[in-house]
Design brief:
322 residues; alpha/beta; TIM Barrel; 5-stranded parallel sheet; binds zinc ion
Length: 322
């Protein structure tokens, strides 16, 4: 009788232990099931993006921008050259397993965000010049008291004998309050050059600029917007911040005054860093047409260094950092 009672108690205890174990396991299963669904629903790109797929990486970058950007920039449009290199922009697998996607979308060990220090201001930047339309552009900028940043090509201004006209334009830019910055010596893709050659591209251009202006530039725009961490490090070493852009009408492709004009007035807002090329007549015509419209809206056009504080090695806009 005693024995069977003991057996009964033992059976009850066993059932209780098994029951508790089942409850614990069940909870764990349900919570681990719930988590991936939350992740997938709230941020699909993290879980679906193959690491070698460049187009997906772009989508993901857009997601990062959308979720982290608090500045007034309203456009994430980018030219083909803005497609990030997959190896350095693909979010790590670690990021995709963190519970709250909002916190994981913040870039890796990235420098501080380059938030515009001036309210109601935008930076207009012109690449690849100076050229045959630059003088006319400078006249219009002067008329509207607007300042711009010119990312110039070193080879076009290096020779004092042959490039007197271009050199006089650089002098005029600085005299009239514009910023002159480095856009390489002959427009090579820096990521395909050795460190030595990148430094040569940077230094020959900065030397050519300072031989006219008396001051070395502090900003570098890598040709095609092509760069990686190695280039950022070399720029930092040379005392330069990297300046990319947002937005861009891809005026090198769309040589159409109305298209570029409409793009500018539709996309340029406070905080924008607009990319244009003053070597194209259509671009200069479109910008001159847009200038009074932007001014009437109360938008102040300033240089990049007036718009944002940048240190050597910084990247602006900061979502380009890699
Ligand atoms: Zn260029």
């Amino acid at each position: 009788m005693k024995k069977s009672r003991m057996k009964h108690i033992f059976s009850l205890l066993l059932m209780a232990v098994v029951g508790v174990a089942l409850i614990i396991t069940g909870t764990k299963i349900s919570s681990s099931n719930q988590y991936p669904h939350e992740t997938i629903n709230s941020n699909p790109t993290w879980t679906t993006m193959p690491s070698q797929d460049t187009s997906s990486a772009t989508t993901s970058l857009t997601t990062i921008i959308t979720e982290t950007q608090t500045t007034t920039e309203d456009s994430q449009e980018s030219s083909p050259s803005t497609v990030p290199t997959t190896s350095e922009t693909t979010p790590s697998s670690k990021e995709s397993t963190v519970t709250k996607p909002k916190t994981t979308t913040k870039p890796r060990t990235k420098p501080p965000k380059t938030t515009p220090k001036l309210k109601g201001a935008a930076a207009i930047t012109f690449d690849d010049g100076p050229g045959g339309h630059t003088s006319r552009l400078l006249n219009a900028l002067k008329q509207y008291n607007a300042k711009a940043t010119f990312f110039v090509i070193g080879s076009g201004i290096a020779n004092p004998e042959n490039q007197k006209y271009n050199r006089s334009l650089i002098k005029r830019m600085v005299d009239e309050g514009h910023e002159v910055a480095n856009h390489s010596y002959d427009h090579k893709d820096f990521t395909k050059l050795s460190d030595k050659d990148v430094l040569s591209q940077i230094r020959r251009t900065s030397d050519a600029i300072s031989s006219i202006t008396g001051e070395k530039p502090t900003l570098l725009r890598p040709p095609y917007g092509s760069f990686n961490r190695r280039i950022t490090n070399l720029a930092e070493q040379e005392g330069l911040a990297l300046v990319l852009w947002s937005p861009s009408p891809e005026d090198w492709k769309y040589k159409d005054v109305d298209y570029v004009y409409n793009y500018i007035i539709d996309h340029v807002t406070a905080g924008s860093t607009l990319l244009l090329h003053d070597i194209h007549k259509t671009t200069v015509d479109a910008f001159i047409k847009a200038l009074p419209v932007l001014t009437e809206r109360g938008l102040k056009l300033v240089t990049v260094s007036e718009l944002v504080d940048l240190k050597p090695g910084d990247v602006h806009p900061s979502w380009w950092w890699r």
